[in-house]
Design a protein that fits this description.
Length: 291
C-alpha cells in the first residue's frame, strides 16, 4: 500500500486459517488499520495479492460482503436513529443472502443483551456515551453472524465490565459460530486472552508471528528475580528462575526475604521485539540494556 511516494505496507504476507482468531499488534502508524481496510475492501491496494474467502476484497460483491462483519475504528452516522432500529436495519441487509437452513442474522434482542445494550434499545444513537456507541459498533459488526469479523481496536473506550462482556462475546463468536476473527488492539492482555496467533507489524512489515507463548519464548532468559538479604534488595535476570531460587536458598538459606519472580510477559516480548526491529538488533539485547 502506497500513499504518494510513501510505502506504508510492504512485505505484509500472512494466511489466516478458517476459525482462527488473530490479533494484529503494532505501534501507532505501523499500518494495522490500513491492512484491515485492504482486507475489508475499503482501501484499494497499490500492488500485491489479497484473497478473503477466496475473493479479491476490492472486487467483493454484496454476497461476499454479507459473509464478513466489520467494526471500524470509528464511524459516526444515523444520529437520530434508535439503537434497535439501526441494528434491525443492518440485520435486514443480510437477510437476502442467508443460505438455506442457516440461522443468520443474529436476533437483535439477543445481541443487545449480549452487549448489555438492552436498556438502551430505544435510545437515539446521538445520546450514547463513547463506550455505549462502541458496543453498538460491535453489535453492527456481528449482527450478520459473519464468517469473518474484522475488528479495529474494538475495546478502545470500553469500561472494564464492557471489556469483559466483549471478550466473552468474541470467545462465543469464535467458538460457537466458528467465525474467523482478525482484530487490532493495543491491549496485550486482550490479545493474549483471545488470540490463537499474534502478528506484530512494525513500519508496514510483519516482523513476528506466533502464539503468545512462542513470542514470549523469544525473549526467554528474561525472568526477573527480586529478593532481599540483610535488608539489602537485589534484582537479576535469569533464564531459569527455579534453579536461580534454589541456588539463592542454598547460599543464604533463611536470610532470603521478599522473593519475587516475574516471568517475561507478552508485553515484555512485544516491547523487546518492536524495539529490536526499530533498532535493527536481535530481540532481548535492548531489554538487557534497558534492565
Ligand atoms: N489516507 C492516507 N494518506 C496518506 N497516509 C496515510 C493515509 N492513511 C494512513 N496513512 C499513513 O499510513 C501509515 C499507517 O497508518 P495506519 O492507520 O494503518 O496505522 P495503525 O497501525 O492502524 O495506527 P494506530 O495504532 O495509530 O491506529 C501511517 O504512517 C499513516 O500516516
Amino acid at each position: 500500500m502506497r500513499y504518494g511516494d510513501q510505502d506504508v505496507l510492504a512485505g505484509v504476507d500472512f494466511d489466516v486459517v478458517a476459525g482462527e482468531t488473530v490479533a494484529l499488534l503494532g505501534p501507532n502508524g505501523a499500518g494495522k488499520t490500513t491492512t484491515i481496510e485492504v482486507l475489508e475492501g475499503f482501501r484499494h491496494r497499490s500492488a500485491g495479492h489479497v484473497a478473503v474467502l477466496g475473493v479479491d476484497p476490492w472486487h467483493g460483491d454484496d454476497r461476499w460482503r454479507s459473509r464478513i462483519g466489520v467494526v471500524m475504528q470509528s464511524w459516526r452516522d444515523h444520529p437520530k436513529w434508535r439503537v434497535r432500529e439501526l441494528l434491525a436495519y443492518q440485520a435486514s441487509l443480510y437477510a437476502p443472502f442467508v443460505p438455506a437452513g442457516a440461522s443468520r442474522p443474529w436476533g437483535v434482542d439477543d445481541l443487545l443483551a449480549a452487549l448489555n445494550l438492552d436498556g438502551l434499545a430505544d435510545a437515539q444513537i446521538r445520546t450514547l456515551s463513547g463506550g455505549q456507541r462502541r458496543r453498538l459498533d460491535i453489535a453492527v459488526g456481528l449482527v450478520g453472524r459473519p464468517e469473518i469479523v474484522f475488528l479495529d481496536e474494538p475495546t478502545a473506550s470500553l469500561d472494564p465490565r464492557a471489556r469483559r462482556d466483549f471478550l466473552a462475546l468474541i470467545q462465543r463468536v469464535g467458538d460457537d459460530l466458528g467465525s474467523t476473527i482478525l482484530m487490532t488492539t493495543h491491549d496485550l492482555a486482550e490479545a493474549e486472552e483471545l488470540a490463537d496467533r499474534i502478528l506484530i507489524l512494525v513500519g508496514g512489515q510483519v516482523i513476528a508471528t506466533g502464539t503468545s507463548k512462542e513470542l514470549t519464548d523469544q525473549i526467554a532468559g528474561h525472568d526477573r528475580v527480586r529478593w532481599a538479604v540483610d535488608g539489602q534488595r537485589h534484582e537479576e535476570s535469569t533464564g531459569d528462575s527455579t534453579a536461580f531460587a534454589r541456588d539463592l536458598f542454598s547460599r543464604y538459606g533463611e536470610q532470603v526475604h521478599e522473593l519475587e519472580v516475574r516471568r517475561a510477559s507478552l508485553e515484555d516480548a512485544y516491547l523487546s521485539i518492536v524495539q529490536a526491529a526499530e533498532h535493527d538488533t536481535p530481540p532481548g539485547d535492548i531489554e538487557e540494556k534497558a534492565a
